[in-house]
Amino acid sequence: PAAHIDREARPCTRPRATAATPARYPRAPRTRAKANTAATGGPVVRLEAKVPLPLSGRGETGGMAMSARAAPAAVSTASGSWRPSTARRAAARSAPAPLTALEKSVGVGPRASRWATAALGRRNGEVTLKEARTRRGRVFTRAVTEPVGDAPVSTPPMPTNKDGASYDQTGQHTIELPQLTESSRADRFDLLIVGCGPAGLSAADRASSKGLRVALIDPTPLAPWRNNYGVWVDEFELLGLTDCFNKVWPLAKVVVDDEHPDGIELQRPYGQVNRIALKDKFLKRCVDQGVVFGACAVEGVAHEDHGSVVTLKGGLDGKFTGEEVHAKMVLDATGHARKLVEFEREFTPGYQAAFGIMCETEEPHGLDLDTMLFMDWRDEHLSPRYKEMNNMHPTFLYAMPFTETKIFFEETSLVERPGLEFDDLKVKLQQRLAAMGIKVKSVQEEEYCLIPMGGVLPTLPQRTLGVGGTAGMVHPSTGFMVSKTLLSVRSLIDTLADELATGGGGGGARINADGVAERVWQSVWPDEELRMRTFMCFGMETLMELDIKGTRQFFETFFQMSQDIWGGFLSWRIKPLGLVRLGGVLFFKFSNYMRFNFVLSALPFMASFVKNFATADNTFNSDKWGGLVLQKPKVTAVPGQGPIPRPDVDKVQNPAAEPISSSPLDFSTLVAGGDIDKPQQASKLRPDREWIEFQQRKIFKDQAPIVDVLKPLDNDAVVDVLVVGAGPAGLAVAAEMASRGVTVGLIAPDTPFVNNYGVWLDEFEELGLTDCLLHEYDDALVWFNDRDPAAGIGLNRGYGQVCRRRLREKLLARCEAAGVRYAPGLVDQLVHGDPGEPSIVSGAIKTDGGEDVPFNMSARVVVCGTGHNRDMLQYEDGPGPGWQTAYGVEVKMPGHPFEVNKAVFMDFRQSDPELEDGSVVEEGVWRVPSFLYVLPVDEDTVFVEETCLVARVQVPFDELKRRLYRRLTRMGLNVTQDQIIEEEASWIPLGGTPPTSPQRTLAYGAAAGLVHPASGYSIVNSLRRAPAFADAVVEGLKAGGSVEAANRGWDVLWGDEPRRQVGFYQFGMELLMSLRIEQMRNFFGTFFALPKELSAGFLGNNLTSAQLLQFALTVFFQGNWELRALLLTHLSSAGAGVRLGEAYAYPLLKALGVETGESGVNVVDRKKPPQEPNFSSFARDLFSAEEQGFLPGFQGKDWWAVGTKPTYGEKRRDDDDDDDEGSNTGGGVGGGVGSSGSPSTAKSPSGAREVITSVNAATSLGGDQGSMAYWSNGSAALVVTSAVRNTGARVDDLYGERRKKFLPAALLNVTGQGVVPPYLTGEMPGDVGWDPLQMGAQRDIIKLRERELIHGRWAMLAAIGVLVPESTARLSIFGAPGQHWWNTAITWSDTLTGLPELTYLGETIPWGIFWLPIIHLPLFFVAELLRTGRLEVEAFRGLDRMYPGGKLFDPLGIGAGVSDEELKILKTIEIQHCRLAMIASFGFIVEALAWGAGPLDVFG
Q1: Residues 122-168 pLDDT 10s
Q2: pLDDT given for residue 308 in this prediction
Q3: For residues 1073 and 1133, what is the distance between their CA atoms, to the nearest angstrom?
Q4: How far apart are CA 516 and CA 1438, in angstroms?
């Protein structure tokens, strides 16, 4: 073929890299083919092909295509850059002809595995082709001569366009299709085809051209095909389809890495198929040849002796539902949906995933218009996270340039199992285009391509025939299939026509259908073709095991082979022995690195390959080592990207069964400036105080006003107990106290219960409140990570949703029955009288007319049940609370995927990926974990909530709302405003300091600290403990008055045992507060695997302090080593362990007078509370975090240092005139936060960063003012940080010219400058200027330091290895007194085995332990090889020889989470300990040799 080339000068400029335009990675220079003059007078390029080349094309052929289009482009056009030769095929048999050398060179011959076609010549407007096939030993050959002619199409003629500017794939098919006709067992169709993709339609065309009676079934036979098909031009020329191109590129190119941007040139034309023209061509032929169409779906197929019966469904108004169609044979061409063919084994393919865009660029893209970019494996443009992912799951760019500004880009994953997520492909494509300096002006079309590759074939043979994707005709190593499928159709149809002619007697109705099917399947998949496919599946599995380096070397070697070899492989046209030779040639050409990795990747599948290749079987096993070794699931996606499997969808279903038209991440928004789901700064969000007030002021008309239920309380009433607050806790304790014979008054605003309460069924059953449940669920589900089953993991514990109205009515009924009286007022001031005197409570009561009427009431005891409001109580000094926040909606969602009898307790599958800052991953900053909580109401209504379990700085409601909607979108669930029934904003302070006890004001419920610090549960605990609390208070009143009542009440709430319990729960809360998402998943995976009595008891506040210690030990021993390390470091970190110890030692501390505990506050003013209100505290910390660079919902390694220690008692507000109810809930004094909850203008970060930056907040907070004294983050880094700071060392004292040296500065000045050698500059850790032997002047000082460091580390281990056995021997724990660390021997005592015994310290050592050091020595040897770089492994490449770090050399992460300054101090501390240990070890040896004594003998 020849190609016209436009010789006019075309601009090839591209913008220079500027600050606004990222620098592009290097590109290959443009190349142009030489022009000749043809008979037409125009310049042409003469292209010659030595052999017919691959018959394959990218894309699906079966009618279930995986793509979607955005908007129409311009006008459909044919290419003018290459002159196609068109041919319309009309089969005409001729006498057999001898095989040519050309056919033999590509594997076509007497042993060819199927009908294979090659062009033999061209004369008189005809194309003469040669066909050959083998059928189980019988060889058939024939020649086919087909006239050349233009194919009519139903759309207008396509104007010639040389540059592809009028590209269009969005036309419509307007052909009128003949309708399906009746059939019966006596009058069957010869062939019924299901699926109107390229495979099905071409089969209908071929079969009808041979005189067969054909029917084609498809729900939308005139729907345009979705996929973009790319093919080698010579393949379509052989098929007579060259009039169906949009554009042809004379050349293709493969770029393997960034070092060789010129790439490998493939001198073979490549074209993009015009799918509209191709389908029109087939449709017109089918209509002309009598094919009938049924616009419906297929319900099923039943096979009979002489034919099959296909049952239909659907169609216009369901007119085909239940109809039957009779056919002699049925052909499944449904593509990857595999609707009718049967598989005898599980189908486990790899998947080729690709995301592509047809776009217009703002400026010329700069790619050569004559060259199609076939593969570009470069990845230097990727951010660190995606580059790390690309290392094991590489992707490449596939690009088709049409004009200077119109181009098709596609990011492709060649093959993975499971397939890569489209969201990740979008991000990688966006990063690639940014590096190329290409700005997308508009996206005209998007393509989502998911192609199953490899896997088992359908059961062979079977009655249902198959072609295309459903018959496994995708190339298992490349994903190409269009041309092969269209060519395979001829073999299938020709064999079928022959068999029907011989077996059915022409048009007869009776045939041997089983025999026909068997022979057709044999013609499609004969033995040699099965062997070829096995080889390709083996290649696919090997490719999936290669990393990016191996993949690059493979394709570099592959495409540098001769074109007939790589072309034959892509075309399925190299015979099995030739494939074996191909593998050998490749292995010979590989580098040693590639040979090693190729063998390593191929070995797990070698046995299955050899078996199937030798026997031509269909049982190739894709499991490593035949499934004998458990495989760790591959992680092929960035956490937080791609779809989240819904609970009603089986995770092992066929992901390619339905068209894919979108993914959660919007690409147009991404290239325009980023993900719209990106978190926003706190100052740009709706203030959380507004959300909380919105929640508190909800009105529910189904909840009756309290004034309509309870009798009124007089303004000057005198009562025994006055309860302030009418929530569940206040109503419960008021009813319990009144039922014990004391007068009780209740004062609070007349508001409904507004929160949704979820409870465990067994706990509510114990309380006798199951009649207050709105919904009961048989089980609660959890998901810990993306690898969990789509249906979730059941906890086997019933759960329930409380009906707020029923619970409130029940508690009010109890209050009414007990005689509780009520006043709808707000307390302003509380004054406690002397002992024996009542307390005076004053404030205002709201009347029906809305007026405020003052009141002054007297009560012997005042109980504060005001929830999270801290205004009327005094609390102990200490850390502030953690914050649990949740945003939820009850929404109408018909057909939602959640089972109505199961609640979703925790779904920790990540809603968002971790953020990256440009090209730097912020290792010290992470997203605060949150989870999905779901309570189904019915099949059409559900309550969904995004919950942050606990955070140091609360996650704002707007951020949780964003996460919830993003999560739902990823699950394929869309929520609109008109669907929302109710919004909920839940805000719960967890932990913190307890109320000072005893104090005259009693508290109950959340105000008394009864909220579970580690879970947020409170309602059951408050309802359960109300009787005991009421008993204590009432008995105290009777025994000693108000003071005794307060003391007894506080003892019930915060006595020795409750304090120990809450101390333990708070320890757990602080641990949870510090965990990243993977650590959180690890913890809860262990937690819910505990015995039910422990996990349920922990959540329900039912465990005693002793049982809690048992709980902790069980978690420690049942968890993995990572969890154990977290627990140990958290226990030993600053503050957490100390507070836990203080809680358990509280009785002793109290006896020693350490804890006075009594409050001296007798006057409480709501407008001037004793401590900072919670509203102010969380707002101050939130905006303090923003000023330090954190986005809302993120934490860093210094998260515990955000904010400042409250000094509220010293800075009370003096505004006595502020009567606004919200004044006590806003405007903290420490953080510049006003009443609106937003930062003050002085503190507003006007230029705050949009992305997270590295934070070192601890250094910005002054000493005692920081929260560091209270909080710990449960990591080894914090323990180290605290240790470093406790040394008082500074970097300036240890490094540089002004560092401290081995002599005081005064003496150094006297002795002169020569005392400190000039090569000791203070750059190395531990450099004190001391080298009296001048060793560093003669040799490489860096090597000397390395040896010193390694010897020192061994010496530290040795020192421990000496002192520990010496101590165990002296204490008779192991060994006897008088034994020393060197006392080891081998004794030949009389043993049954006759083996010697190994003794140490006089004790016999089991032989199993003896072998441990022998096993460990090679491991030490390997570690040293990795450290020094003598053994090259990609994961350990480029290690620092002295401080390698990482999980292997720093498993506790001691050096990973500290600042650079702290790391320098740590290095100095280490080298000093090394030197001390070397001196000590030397002393131990001398002491042993000289005196036979051990280091502890000095103690006698």
Answers
A1: 333 333 333 433 333 333 333 333 333 333 333 333 333 434 555 66
A2: 92
A3: 14
A4: 63
Indicate the average pLDDT of the chain: 76
Of 1229, 1179, 1188, nearest in space to 883 by CA? 1179
The whole-angstrom separation of Cα 673 and Cα 36 is 47
Query: pTM for this one?
Result: 0.67
What order of strands is seen across the sheet that includes strand 93-94?
Answer: 93-94, 138-147, 126-135, 116-123
Q: How confident is the model at residue 484 (pLDDT cuts 50, 70, 90)?
A: confident
Tokens of 1350: 């390694």
Is the Cβ–Cβ distance between 1074 and 1123 less than 8 Å?
no
Predicted confidence (pLDDT) per residue in 908-948, tens digit: 988 877 766 433 334 567 888 999 999 999 999 999 999 99
Strands (E), 865-1008: 882-892, 902-907, 925-927, 931-938, 941-951, 980-990, 1002-1003
* Helical (H) or strand (E) element with 7: none
Residue type, 870: R
Sort residue 833 into left (φ over 0), alpha (ψ -120 to 50) or beta: beta
Of residues 1014 and 1269, more confidence is placed in 1014
Tell me, what's the pLDDT at 1140? 81
Q: Residue 1335, class by beta-carbon neighbours within 10 Å (0-12 exposed, 13-18 middle, 19+ buried)?
A: exposed
Is the pLDDT at 265 greater than 70? The verdict is yes
Tell me the pLDDT tens digit for each residue of 1221-1250.
333 333 222 233 333 333 333 333 333 333
Residue with tokens 């020709």: 494
Chain segment 403-427, per-residue pLDDT in tens: 999 999 999 999 888 888 888 899 8
- Count the neighbouring beta carbons within 10 Å of the beta carbon of residue 481: 30
Taking CA atoms, 661 is separated from 67, 336, 428, in Å, by 5, 16, 19
Residue 206: what residue type? R
Distance from C-alpha of 799 to C-alpha of 815, rounded to nearest angstrom: 27
Classify residue 1307 as left (phi > 0), alpha (psi -120 to 50) or beta: alpha
Cα(356)–Cα(367) distance, integer angstroms:
17
- Which residues have CB under 8 Å from 837's CB, separation 6+? none
What single-letter amino acid sits at 392?
A: M
- How far CA 341 is from CA of 298, 331, 469, 650, in Å, comes to 13, 9, 11, 21
Instruction: Tell me which residue of 93, 53, 339, 311 sits closest to 199, measured CA to CA.
Output: 339
Alpha-carbon distance of 1114 to 614, in angstroms, equals 54
Per residue in 601-652, pLDDT tens?
Answer: 888 888 888 888 888 887 777 777 766 555 555 666 676 676 777 787 654 4
- Residue written as token pair 């003013």: 1165
Q: What's the distance, Cα to Cα, between the start and end of the chain in Å?
A: 101
**Contact 906/933 with Cβ under 8 angstroms?**
yes
Output the six-digit token pair for 85.
Answer: 């030769």
Work out whether the CA dihedral 1333, 1339, 1341, 1346 comes out positive or negative: negative
Query: Cα(430)–Cα(641) distance, rounded to whole angstroms?
Result: 15
Rounded Cα gap, residues 345 and 460, in angstroms: 12
Q: What confidence score (pLDDT) does residue 1152 get?
A: 66
**Helix (H), strand (E) at residue 114:** none
CA–CA distance, 1284 with 1271 (Å, rounded to integer): 17
Residue partners of 583: CB distance under 8 A and separation at least 6: 535
DSSP state of 1206: -
What is the DSSP secondary-structure string of 674-720? S-TTS---GGGSPPHHHHHHHHHT---TTS--GGGTSEE--TT-EEE
Distance (Å, whole) CA 534 – CA 553: 23
Residue with tokens 């009813």: 735
